[in-house]
UniProtKB/TrEMBL annotation, chain A:
An annotated GO BP: transmembrane transport
Subcellular location: Cell membrane
A Pfam family the protein falls into: BPD_transp_1_N
Family of the protein in this entry: Belongs to the binding-protein-dependent transport system permease family.
GO cellular component: plasma membrane
Annotated transmembrane regions: 12-30, 99-122, 134-155, 184-203, 242-269, 289-313
Recorded topology in the membrane: Multi-pass membrane protein
Family annotation (PROSITE patterns): ABC_TM1
Keyword annotations: Cell membrane, Membrane, Transmembrane, Transmembrane helix, Transport
Highest rank taxon of the organism: Bacteria
Species of origin: Deinococcus marmoris
Domain ABC transmembrane type-1: 95-306
Protein name in the entry: Oligopeptide transport system permease protein OppB
UniProtKB/TrEMBL annotation, chain B:
Gene3D superfamilies named in the record: Dipeptide-binding Protein, Domain 1, Dipeptide-binding Protein, Domain 3, Periplasmic binding protein-like II
Protein name, per record: Oligopeptide ABC transporter, periplasmic oligopeptide-binding protein OppA
Alphabetical keyword list: Signal
Gene Ontology terms, MF aspect: peptide transmembrane transporter activity
Source organism, top-level taxon: Bacteria
Pfam family, one: SBP_bac_5
InterPro entries: Peptide/Ni-bd, SBP_5, SBP_5_dom
Signal peptide, first to last residue: 1-21
Domain Solute-binding protein family: 71-459
A GO BP entry: peptide transport
Gene Ontology CC terms: ATP-binding cassette (ABC) transporter complex; periplasmic space
Length: 321, 544
């Protein structure tokens, strides 16, 4: 196991250098830069050039990259050009709300997918199976911006059950338990969008891996030994059903951090996804690069974790260094 | 002395009662929305519109504009010009305090103006104070201070310019004054990254309370505001997508928000939401590259102007919330020449104009002497009216035999064509091949002297914003005179003449001016945005 981790770790570092350099180069090669978003008639073009030179925007890309990377190695992501705030401070403010949203919907997705997936596998072509399949395809087909706006229109504007957007009822100034409940109330619609649009893949995977397991010889053996149907499902089939969940957990790790651009935008959620969009439009490269890099690290770590967890769940998987 | 005391006591009483009259109710919280998050809240570091909307709640300039775009007292109670018109002396309001309780004095004003001229300052406002005597010497490190700025006493400051500079009040209205006791401790080269960018201390009607990234800015009333406390206790400014904020407005989660034109119906059908329609100072235009001999042909520019159906853009794409613009000043600007001849929508006249100039139609495109009327037209993404208007303009021009290839891009990308750079990343002059036509918006300021940078030969990139390459001295001279003329009537006539000339010469083909739409919940009273912006009378807003 240890040589396996070491090898993957070295691969990961090389990969990370490549990913960060390529994304740095691509961003900076795109025409235009942050200063140009500030142009207004009252400032002369010379002042923009001065500011560009002060930021080092006109230096060759490898030189800029080395500067960025050496700052990063000292734990410094730099300053946002647009906000004049340290990137680390910005990320700290945005990571929490995103994690809250993504983790909640992930737990819901896993729970619903396991329950419905195992049930559909045990009773294929039943009403529940058909219904869930339909729902899942609806969820994967519907664009999340449209779904989100529909929910806002129906449940906020028309019925008034949920708030339209935001992280809490700002003017109310809730504290303690009231604040907790208020935030949960604000989370309801965005979590609903993330869950319904995200459940499709995992539910189908759970269903197919459980139904495949149910056809295996050891299940027939268990049945012939008189093990109850419920025990077979929970003890044996579910274990197989967990494999796609583990993969998903590993691959979702970056999304826990980076969040969902569209859902956060529609619900004015103060998360990382919106920060990324805003920084891209403003050509605020220090912020976009920081989010990119952390996401890349999490992709690498996430797939490593997923591979290691496989070994714990499925004894057939071996780590051969 | 006694009389004076009685008089001032009476004044205090009068202003106190005026305050109660203005505020039927004091207290409460209002929440307003804007569609983009402000960035840096130092008003002297590259302010954007979204930054300024917040900054003008927290800070003050010496003067501020009136609704008809003249100037009125802000931090300065009054001002006088010297006989030679080169020195302006400002008398500050008495007893003004910063939000932290320190006194605001003329030294703060001098500090702010000097900091902008510092050799180490990098925030984009130096060109505004460049006209002050000695500012360039200080900027180049040749002087220890700016000789044209004199603090006379705590409440009096004089500013002298080398030449008579008519827009001096406009300049001062654009510079918000910073507290020396805070910003003086931060090296000017670090202003761009300082913590004060997210926690400003000013002198304005509202005190900054907190900035929650991605969510809101919270402000609380400055109860000691020199112009009278705001009626509200608290003001929350939320940021979010236009459609989301509109839903929040209709539902009453926010009290005021911008209304996107396609959503007007939903506001009109909500009984609790009032719609305000406000003229703006910005307008869209088709810019030309006059270095291109085909576009230098006046007949071609005239024909393009006659062929574009601008009324269709207003009625079709803006649902009527806009106006056709006939010159470089929208109707709402004081410099607009009322006798300007409207640009007709007349495709037949456009055809005739090109025929007369010898441009022969063949295969749907006109040509002359082996040159074909084919142009690239760049336009920016993000504004649906402009995006769809570009396609309409393309179709209009095709009808008269001008072929246009549309290319959309974001604003920073368009800038790389208009203000090109050489291989080393340094700015260079524009050439014929950099671009042909572009559609862009222009936010004309209250003072039109900024056109100097756009329509004089000296203003061509890299020195200014004369992308089009308009070098006719007739237009440029009017602008130079306009900047040196203090008498408002004479100035107005100079800019009127400039407006008429631009209508005839059409270096830019003016298109349309969009109106801004805002909705407010009826519980928020006195919400009255105007041409100056959304927050102009914020101190008088009150909630039920």
């Amino acid at each position: 196991m240890l040589p396996f981790i070491a090898k993957r770790g070295i691969q990961g570092v090389i990969l990370l250098i490549m990913v960060s350099f390529i994304s740095f180069a691509v961003m900076n090669l795109a025409p235009g830069n942050a200063m140009q978003t500030f142009i207004n008639p009252r400032m002369s073009p010379q002042e923009i050039t001065r500011a560009e030179n002060a930021l080092g925007i006109n230096k060759p890309i490898p030189v800029q990259y080395l500067g960025w990377a050496s700052n990063l190695l000292q734990g410094n992501f730099g300053y946002s050009v647009r906000n004049g705030e340290s990137v680390t401070a910005l990320l700290k403010q945005r990571a929490g709300p995103t994690l809250l949203l993504t983790a909640t919907s992930f737990v819901l997705i896993v729970f619903i997918a396991l329950v419905i997936g195992v049930y559909s596998a045990a009773r294929p072509y039943s009403l529940v199976d058909y219904l869930s399949t339909t729902l899942v395809f609806a969820g994967i087909s519907i664009p999340s911006f449209f779904f989100g706006l529909t929910l806002i229109y129906l449940f906020s504007v028309q019925l008034g059950w949920f708030p339209t957007s935001g992280f809490e009822s700002y003017s109310a100034g809730h504290q303690g338990l009231a604040l907790f409940l208020d935030r949960a109330w604000h989370m309801a619609l965005p979590v609903c969008v993330l869950t319904l649009t995200g459940i499709a893949g995992i539910l189908r995977h759970v269903r197919s891996s459980v139904s495949e397991a149910l056809r295996q010889d050891y299940i027939r053996t268990a049945r012939s030994k008189g093990v109850g149907e419920r025990a077979i499902l929970v003890k044996h089939a579910l274990r197989n059903g967990l494999i796609p969940v583990v993969t998903l957990l590993g691959l979702s790790l970056p999304a826990f951090f980076a969040g969902s651009v569209i859902t956060e935008t529609i619900f004015a959620w103060p998360g990382m996804g919106r920060l990324l969009v805003d920084s891209v439009f403003a050509r605020d490269y220090p912020v976009s690069m920081a989010i990119n890099t952390i996401t890349a690290v999490l992709v690498i770590v996430g797939s490593l974790v997923a591979d290691m967890l496989y070994g714990l769940i499925d004894p057939r998987v071996r780590f051969d260094g | 002395m006694r009389h004076l005391l009685t008089l001032s006591a009476a004044l205090v009483l009068a202003s106190a009662s005026a305050q109660t009259a203005a505020c039927p109710k004091i207290g409460g919280t209002a929440t307003i929305a804007q569609n983009s998050e402000p960035g840096n809240l130092n008003p002297l570091i590259f302010p954007t519109t979204y930054d300024t909307n917040i900054e003008e709640l927290v800070f003050n300039a010496l003067v501020k504009p009136t609704a008809d775009l003249d100037y009125q007292a802000d931090l300065a109670q009054s001002w006088t010009f010297s006989a030679d018109k080169k020195t302006i002396t400002f008398k500050l309001q008495p007893g003004v305090k910063w939000h932290d309780g320190q006194a605001l004095t003329a030294k703060d004003v001098a500090f702010t103006l000097t900091a902008i001229a510092s050799p180490k300052y990098n925030g984009g406002a130096f060109s505004q104070v460049e006209v002050i005597t000695g500012a360039n010497a200080y900027h180049d490190g040749k002087a220890k201070s700016i000789s044209g700025i004199k603090v006379i006493d705590d409440r009096t400051i004089a500013v002298t310019t080398d030449k008579v500079y008519a827009p001096i009040l406009a300049t001062m209205a654009g510079i918000m004054i910073l507290p020396q006791h805070i910003y003086g401790k931060i090296p000017v080269e670090n202003w761009q990254k300082d913590a004060t960018n997210r926690n400003p201390v000013g002198s304005g009607p509202f005190k900054f309370k907190q900035f929650r990234s991605g969510e809101l800015i919270e402000l609380e009333a400055n109860k000691n505001y020199f112009a009278g406390r705001p009626c509200l206790d608290r003001l929350i400014v939320r940021f979010g997508d236009a459609n989301t904020m509109l839903a929040a407005l209709v539902k009453g989660e926010v009290d005021a928000a911008p209304v996107p034109v396609p959503s007007v119906a939903s506001v009109k059908s909500s009984p609790n939401v009032k719609l305000s329609v406000v003229d703006q100072l910005n307008f869209d235009y088709v810019g030309t590259n006059l270095r291109n001999p085909l576009l230098a042909d006046q007949a071609v520019r005239n024909a393009m102007a006659y062929a574009i159906n601008r009324k269709a853009i207003v009625s079709g794409l803006m649902s009527g919330y806009g106006n056709v613009v006939d010159t470089l000043f929208p109707k709402s600007h004081w410099a607009y020449p009322t006798n300007v001849k409207p640009i007709p929508y007349d495709p037949a006249l456009a055809q005739k104009t090109l025929d007369d100039a010898g441009w022969k139609m063949s295969g749907g495109v006109r040509s002359k002497g082996g040159k074909t009327l084919k142009f690239r037209m760049f336009y920016t993404t993000g504004n649906p009216v402009r995006e769809r208007g570009a396609a309409l303009i393309q179709a209009n021009l095709r009808q008269i035999g001008i072929q246009v290839d549309l290319q959309s891009m974001d604003f920073p990308t368009l800038v790389t064509f208009l203000l090109p750079k050489d291989g080393k990343g340094q700015p260079r002059a524009v050439t014929t091949s950099d671009f042909d036509l572009f559609i862009l918006g222009f936010g004309i300021e209250r003072d039109p002297s900024e056109y100097l940078s756009y329509f004089t030969a000296d203003g061509q990139p890299p020195n200014g914003y004369n992308f089009s390459g308009y070098t006719n001295p007739a237009g440029g001279n009017l602008l130079v005179k306009g900047q040196e003329t203090v008498n408002q009537a004479t100035r107005k006539s100079l800019y009127n003449q400039f407006g008429l000339m631009m209508r005839d010469q059409l270096p830019w083909i003016p298109l349309t001016q969009a109106q801004a739409l805002y909705g407010n919940q009826t519980r928020l009273h006195n919400f009255a945005p105007d041409i100056r912006g959304v927050n102009v009378n914020v101190t008088r807003w009150w909630v039920q």
